[in-house]
Design a protein that fits this description.
- The complex is a heterodimer.
- By secondary structure, chain A is an alpha+beta fold.
- In chain A, about 40% of the residues lie in helices and about 10% in strands.
- Chain A has six helices and four strands.
- In chain A, a hairpin with a 3-residue loop joins strand 2 and strand 3.
- In chain A, helix 3 crosses helix 6 and helix 4 crosses helix 5.
- Chain B is an alpha/beta fold.
- In chain B, the strands form four sheets. A six-stranded antiparallel β-sheet of chain B has the order 4-11-12-13-10-16, with helices on one face.
- Chain B has twelve helices and 17 strands.
- Chain B is about 25% helix and about 15% strand.
- The two termini of chain B are about 25 Å apart.
- Chain B is globular and about 70 Å long.
- Classes of the chains: A alpha+beta, B alpha/beta.
- At the A-B interface, helix 6 of A face helix 6, helix 9 and helix 10 of B.
- Bound molecules: flavin-adenine dinucleotide and iron/sulfur cluster.
Chain lengths: ~170, ~525
């Protein structure tokens, strides 16, 4: 996470040039950032628009309204890689084509989740969708910083287990 | 003190695999003065090495070598290259196991007689029965320190258990308790009591849960009669012109092939690798593989009828706190065909951490139906089903076209659900959801079986040589000095978690082998 968090100066500078796309800001070439400046990410292989599309896809596949964008960003950052470029190029082109077939300009510009989900359903059998979805299962839910949002406490050995820390503290039965 | 035997020493018993079956057999033989070389494909990890993180631990301990799948089971679609969740390490899957340790019910030793012929099923009676097994079960319970046996106290109930118990009682279930568990409720056998850390599936860092890795294996080694070679992957079992096995070929971790001679060979690689090894050992004399004159090697694969049920409540449960599986309802384990199926099932508490919950909740699922369930992870309670599944001749391990890192054909695992399995699973789903609904669940749902943790039956025991691979001692019908010592011996699966039975059979088999060796019969 540290790479993405609070890039200070750079972030501030680039946000000045930001263009809002969906819920995200694409800031000049090679950067994508949250409009509220909570985080920013540099992309080197794929375009900021493609990264923004991947992030929206991630949110629509596993939508958790209480989970901030930066966690989804970490989960899809792996696609900013030469080895993934062809997959991303073709996959996003197909996704946008599916959006157009349903009467939208492209996937990212669709306002309602419900409508984006219909577009995703049209491509859910494709390798691109399946790769992104499967990757998220670990890419999103295996981030230790995500766990507390769901209440999950992770390892407890270092604290002596739960024997004195509420393994049987249920009080509402 | 740790023994070192020569590759040409043909007086040793070679055991392939060091899990519940092989690890226990190795120690029991060593205790009786028999010289043993145990070959284990995985490395050695002890409590200090275990990682309380689901995926990291999986990467450390799980068997990740290639396997392939076919059949209509959902695992073949969701986890095509991972039909089973089992361990490759010294101690085998007893590092990952949850510790539920229950005896078969008397009638389950005689499934064919009790249930009658079931269409499409290859049912058979075991060549042994409850009376014969009782003393061996008692020894196994002592070894494992099973709670609620021999006067040992039960484990305390966790939050997940309390929800489960309250729902079960509302439904009128009577046999509900925190389980007969190979987890210490108080200090036992030089191991501490359970500290409720909640990572039983990842290896117990306290050693409160029994595992062969830090009990039987080091004790066997301490006798000076047992040598465990880790990172030793057995490729082939060799035999002579008389049809007796003479040794095994194995790859060490650098890929060098060695030949270890043997007086007796025991196969204990779990129910995919054991038949695979017999099939990969085919020769001019045994063109269908070793011990396979019956054509039963690899057939009758069983995995228990499983599946999980989760309930979501309006208040926290925090199921991850505490033991993973200490809770059981046994009322449905009876054989009662009026429910629409033969055999029975156990319901046991289960909790997964958030990462595994996401992976197993509804593999392939996405969207708000999926995520709103996970959103309430903190308020979730879980249980899983362990039911008897039907042995079917066509559910089988065969050699795949895919090769592993040693160039050896890997196991293909084919499985189709039997209609009895489906009827039982649906019944269990309904009951499980009713249990949670009875204590106020706002949502409850069934989830499909994950990769198999209980793998049984692919070298089954039979009275008659034509019906199975080995006899009542696990000795193969075809080759007198070749034994099967793991869960692949199971004639039928019963409704109980298998490990206590695997251990009891291994103790009994060690007694038999040592006796026959002493008598000069082996
Ligand atoms: C998460 C989980 C929870 C479980 N919980 C329970 C429970 O609560 N109760 C219960 O009864 N059971 C439980 N089980 C099942 C139990 O662990 C197994 O049934 C049992 O360990 C099987 O014993 P085995 O001897 O057949 O094989 P294993 O214990 O799997 O041992 C086989 C060993 O052989 C080695 N091997 C394989 N092929 C070769 C080769 N060619 N050369 C050398 N070595 C080889 C493997 O690396 C492995 O170490 C659980 C399993 C899992 C995964
Ligand atoms: S809950 Fe108990 S048995 Fe399970 S890992 Fe923790 S200490 Fe060990």
């Amino acid at each position: 996470m540290s790479k993405l968090e609070r890039k200070g100066l750079t972030r501030r500078a680039l946000l000045g040039r930001a263009v809002a796309v969906g819920a995200l800001a694409i800031a000049g070439t090679g950067f994508i950032a949250a409009p509220n400046a909570a985080w920013a990410m540099e992309v080197s292989v794929i375009t900021p628009e493609q990264m923004a599309t991947l992030m929206q896809m991630a949110r629509d596949i596993y939508p958790h309204d209480q989970v901030a964008d930066r966690f989804y960003a970490v989960a899809v950052k792996v696609y900013d890689d030469a080895a993934a470029k062809d997959l991303v190029d073709a996959g996003i082109a197909a996704l946008n084509a599916a959006a157009q077939a349903q009467g939208h300009a492209d996937y990212l510009s669709i306002g309602w989740e419900e409508d984006r989900v219909k577009v995703l359903q049209a491509v859910e059998g494709e390798v691109f969708f399946q790769t992104v979805r499967a990757g998220l299962v670990t890419g999103l839910y295996n981030q230790k910083d995500v766990w507390p949002i769901f209440g999950y406490e992770g390892e407890s050995f270092s604290q002596g287990g739960y024997i004195d820390r509420g393994f049987d503290d249920i009080d509402w039965l | 003190m740790v023994a070192k035997f020569d590759l040409n020493d043909d007086s040793v018993v070679v055991i392939i695999g060091t899990g519940a079956g092989g690890g226990v057999l190795a120690n029991e033989l060593a205790q009786k003065g028999v010289k043993v070389v145990a070959l284990e494909a995985g490395g050695r990890y002890l409590p200090d090495d275990y990682i309380n993180d689901e995926w990291e631990s999986f990467g450390q301990l799980a068997w990740l070598d290639a396997r392939t799948t076919s059949g209509d089971w959902r695992v073949a679609k969701d986890f095509a290259g991972l039909p089973a969740w089992i361990v490759k390490a010294v101690g085998g899957t007893t590092t990952h196991w949850a510790g539920a340790s229950i005896r078969f019910q008397e009638h389950e030793w005689k499934a064919l007689t009790t249930y009658g012929a079931v269409e499409g099923a290859n049912l058979l009676d075991w060549p042994i029965d409850a009376a014969e097994m009782a003393p061996w079960y008692a020894l196994a319970e002592t070894k494992l320190g099973v709670t609620l046996t021999e006067g040992r106290a039960g484990l305390p109930g966790s939050n997940n258990y309390k929800v489960f118990e309250a729902g079960a009682k509302k439904l009128g279930y009577k046999e509900v308790h925190t389980g007969r568990m190979a987890i210490n409720s108080s200090e036992y056998d030089e191991r501490p009591a359970c500290q409720q850390t909640g990572f039983c599936f990842q290896g117990c860092k306290w050693g409160a849960k029994w595992s062969a890795a830090y009990t039987d294996i080091p004790r066997g080694e301490a006798t000076g009669n047992l040598e465990v070679r880790e990172h030793a992957h057995v490729a082939r079992i060799l035999h002579d012109d008389s049809g007796k096995v003479t040794g095994v070929e194995y790859f060490d971790k650098d890929g060098n092939l060695h030949l270890q001679k043997a007086r007796i060979v025991s196969v204990a690689g779990n129910s995919f690798e054991s038949p695979r090894l017999l099939l990969n050992s085919a020769s001019a004399m045994f063109p269908n593989g070793l011990a396979n004159s019956s054509d039963q090697v690899g057939r009758n694969y069983m995995r228990h009828t499983t599946g999980s049920i989760y309930g979501i409540f309006d208040k926290p449960v925090r199921m991850w706190r505490g033991t993973t599986m200490a809770g059981i309802i046994q009322d449905e384990a009876r054989h009662d065909p009026s429910r629409g199926f033969v055999g029975g099932y156990e319901l046991e508490t289960l909790s997964l951490g958030l990462p595994f919950m996401a992976a197993f909740l509804n593999p392939g699922g996405w969207g708000r139906g999926f995520t709103t369930a996970l959103d309430h992870y903190e308020n979730m309670a879980g249980m899983w089903i362990v039911g008897e599944d039907m042995p079917q001749a066509t559910n089988r391990v065969t050699l795949s076209d895919t090769k592993d890192q040693w160039g050896l054909p890997v196991a293909n695992v084919h499985f189709d659900d039997h209609p009895n399995d489906v009827a039982m699973r649906n019944h269990a789903y309904k009951q499980g959801m009713a249990i949670y609904d009875a204590v106020g669940a706002t949502r409850s749902f069934p989830t499909p079986p994950y990769p198999s943790t209980h793998n049984l039956g692919t070298n089954r025991m039979s009275e008659r040589p034509e019906d199975g691979v080995c006899n009542k001692w696990g000795q193969t019908h075809d080759i007198a000095n070749l034994f099967i010592s793991d869960g692949s011996q199971f004639t039928t699966g019963a409704s109980e978690n298998p490990t206590l039975t695997i251990v009891a059979l291994a103790i009994r088999q060690a007694d038999h082998i040592a006796r026959e060796m002493a008598a000069g019969n082996l």
